[in-house]
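quick one, 551 residues, struct below
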Amino acid sequence: MKKLLLLMPIALMGWFCSSAPDEFTKGPGSETTNGLALIDGKPASYASVALRKVNFRASQAVEENALVVADGYADEKGAFEVKIPEEGEYRLTVVHPDGVAFSKVVTRADFSESNDKASPDTVNLLATALMAGVVDVPEGSSNVWVGVLGTDVLVKTDSNGWFALSALPANDSLHLYFVDGDYDKTLDEKTLYLKPRESVLKDYRAPDPDEGKIVALLKDGTPAAYATVALRAADAMAEEFAVQSMVVDSDVRTDANGKFTMEWPKKGDFRLTVVSDGFAFSKVFDAEDLPDLDTIRLSATASISSKVTLRSTTDFLWVGVRGLDMLVKTNDVGAYVLPNVPADDSLSIYFVASDSLNSLYTEWKTSVEPSSTQFLNPVKVLQDFEKDGEGWYLNIDLLKKGTEIKPANNVAEGIVYDSTRKSKVFHGTYKLANDDYAWALVGTSFEHYMNLSEIDSVVFYAKGNGNIRLSLENYIDDSKNLKAATEWIPLSKDWKRISVNPAELCVGAAATETCFTSWSGVKSWVKQFHIFVQDGSEFYIDDVILYGALF
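---
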């Protein structure tokens, strides 16, 4: 879980109580040097002045909220003297009650000698900064001590590790040090640089080992221990032909507590899948949302049983789900089962031919409920006329003079809006020659021979002032039956839903054919889908749908 920095209470009052001042730092070869403390060019009258070794820290656990306890003070004009040893580095700190300070690491060579009264070294005091922070409190301690090397300040955290330093000098690199509650073990040191009047909040706690991890839970709330975890591009398909009944191969696994982490992609859509003994979570995410995941819950898997319509020359198809590694085969009539798929999310099922995984045959989307076996019946909309009627045509018997159908050029010209259907429909007019064998039709021709032996029904809507007939045909291969058609169906001025079961396709090319022979001879090699008209002058067609078909 990600840590959150909490807002510190606005209670930084009373932090300026000082201990007794130390003496000036002395040492071999110390010389009294000359300085001038200014605030915006004006004297920093009576400012506190202190010099400490650069690595100086409090010798005992006594709270001191003042930055330094003064060794001496500047006079009314801001002038001060300080003894700096000839060897080593020291932190010189000058603090004024107006909330300004100067603090730098200096050497003896940085300041003029006291006998050079005309050229004192000038220090310009700037507005102080404030910082609050939090550290880990070690086991067995009730708090942590926090100080700044080279100064006298030492504060104590609360039991949760929170502390504040209310007046820190700006524009210099400071070094914080942390000591345990018994003040006998240094825990850490941190560098801090602040600007004048800056207020910062720092989190010095050690990184949480679970930072960025996601926890996977089963339905009852228990961890999904050692579960399979995989991340795939949302549109990914299998890379090779091999039956793979597992949902995914693991990229990583959850630990004993159901937690896992992985490197997330920067952009794109990806399916994250977690699987554990009949339970799964699978969902497509934008890459930007993946780092924000916290907890995911697995649901019971389900199975999908369905079918796809094969081409007449196709023995089977491969079936998979985009973003998963699962891959199964259909049987010779296109039936298949996808076992143990993730539930409660839309799945994009794809179908590819047995000779190329790169050649998409068709696909469709569906979703399933947990702990179920779904028998899904596909649906193929052949034409709804909402666009331009692409792939559909009009035709007549050119040998029968006087036969005509309009629009003469293409189906698109006959598409009109129908207020009853509240959609676009096809409207045609026709005239047949005075001949029993004259015909006119609207329909389509499939690119390949289609095996429609497993379709459930054909449904479409029609109205007009004549009769209509549905015919599934093969006028390409003389070795096959030519057609299987319905009897003539009368139309009226009102829309009629026409549902045709294959058992009703009783009219064949020969007068002696039975219902069985007419359909059985064509069903595995269907090339044309035609709707014929007769005994009228106009007709309307809409929403031509194959139930139990997908291609």
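The first strand starts at residue 31 and ends at 39.
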